[in-house]
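hey team, just a heads up i'm posting the complex here instead of the shared drive bc the drive is being weird again. everything in one block, sequence lines first with there labels, then the predicted structure for the whole assembly after. its two chains so it's a bit long, scroll down
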Amino acid sequence: MMNNMILALMGTLMYATPLLFAALGGVVSELSGVMNIGIEGVMTFGAFVAATVSFFSGSSILGFALAGVCGGVLILLHAITSISLRADQTISGTAINFLGPGISVLLTKKLFDGSAFSPPATKLPSIFPQALANRFHGTVFEALNGISSATLFAFFCVFLLWFVLYKTKWGLRIRATGEYPAAVDTMGVSVTTVRYCCVLASGVLAGFGGAFMSLSVTSSFSPVTVCGHGFIALAAMIFGNWKPHGTMLSCLLLGFAMECTTLWGGSNNAWLPVPIMEMFPYLLTIVILILFVGELATPKANGIPYVKGSH
Amino acid sequence: MRRLEFAKRFMPTVFALFSGFFVGALFLILTGYDPIRSYAAMLEGVFSRPKYLIQVISKSAPLALTGLSVAFAFKCGLFNIGSEGQYTIGVIVATLLGTKLSLPFGVHFIVIMLAGMIFAGIWGAIVGFLKVKFGINEVVTAIMLNWIALHLHRYVFSFPWLLVKNIDASQEIKETARSAILHGFIATPKGQTLAAKNAFLADILKTDLNFGIFLAIGAAFAIHHLLNSTTKGFELRAMGINQEASRFAGMNIKRNVILSMFISGAISGLAGVIQLTGFGPFRMTNLAAFEGYGLEGIYIALVANCSPIGCIASGLFFSAIKCGSALMQIEVGTPREIIKIITGLIIFFIAIPFAYKLIASKIQKTKKDTINHDE
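-- predicted structure starts here --
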């Protein structure tokens, strides 16, 4: 029993981590007033970069870090079109969703002799050092070794983001930019700069999310590695009411739903067919939205390009 | 003057298409592929044989329809990213009714088509309902419903009475249910003699000839008529331009949102029905991931600038690069994914009309400056 509970907890944390990174990315971007449905594409690109870099360099941490950098570079396109060129942000985000997977699969085929799959990647290190891990060996706590250091980092990001957004001057400016950009402009703070920084941060976070998918969840990159997690993360962000701590809770809940699907699917005495169970996280998302969406605080200027001098 | 209007309307799209291919070529050079040979092979894969050209036209039908579906929703102020799921529902309905129902030729297909459209329409209407009833963003619900539809497809695929075990596909749908024309004719003695006489016909008969493209054109004109010549269409367009204003004018926004999502879903469902009934192997196959017709509908609609008739042309164009890229991958070895990149780039260039205005105003300014200077 204890063992099963720990296993379920591990699975929940594993599934929640990539969602958490990506959803936090969504939070930063949308709080500053830039809609970002390109997260899915950035995650795919991040997943590709992480798997490839860690295969060639042998270091999963380097892969993880570079995935964040490359995620930032890819989202820069979205930033330029939607902030400077005032493009429709949904369309621009859609473009990212084509570009990210396209580049990733093309380069995978180029690098690995026409195969759309990357070779197995090394997992991100566990939070416990080897010496401590050996002590757990044979006890119920053995499964705890599975907690990835990136999971810890994701939760640290939640705290960091919460602190920046709600306890610092910069956070206030970011939130104001998403609510009423003209006010921020009047204060002499550049709306454009704030939005660029936030969108870039969201790209980096989404890149981390993708990296975690390919390194620690599926342990290689393929065209279906990310399979809609970017969109699920957006749902988690909305359900989390655009707040880092709320988003954390919704990601944990969705992670738990995914873990349940895996656990039931794995057991033979399943009373429901597997495909029906696999609908569960998606159905749960819709139900959650039905129950909670009424009290949402959508950033008012979200999705609207800011033209200097307008109100 | 009219020519100028025409140019103004189409220039951004032409520019976007051209830029997409141009930047795509740069990307190919960077990754070590030959862009000229790749694009040439792509062209060859479209025009070099009548077979290829016919295939491009046949295959454009489902694309044009998902494009039409997304374009119609855009016109009503909604983003139907759920076209993929609605398409999948169309496929599921066509498989079930096509294999299990016994009806005379003609009637069978019409029944399947209507049923597929109604169920897919309902699938779309759910999104509209959740939006107006609970205020849930249609993008999120639609994406969730896409995944639910995919798993539903898998569930249906697990029915033992539908499957043929050794080929990992469903049973074939009945002859009466198909939208394919003259399929299998070439295998008959009559077809053989005809093919021996006429190489041109023999080539064409090998393709997936079907009447889907006529249905697509019909649907496009119907939507064009609905939007531009009816009161309901006026209401829907008004809602697309300014929801608050149309609410103030006494229009029933809630009902209109649900209705337009229903129509949009039904069109995507029709695409699924045509895909299954018009192309070999006429079976439901195991899906590991989305087929992508719904997502492709988004850029087809965008390139068509959301004009219903334009979706036909845009569908043809993307069907061409899709079919052409198959030959490119075989002959030159350039991965097909390059068309995804080109498409993404095209969408970017379409998304930035403001940039064109900026460039245009700069050019005009320099012109004015030079004139002033001359004086």
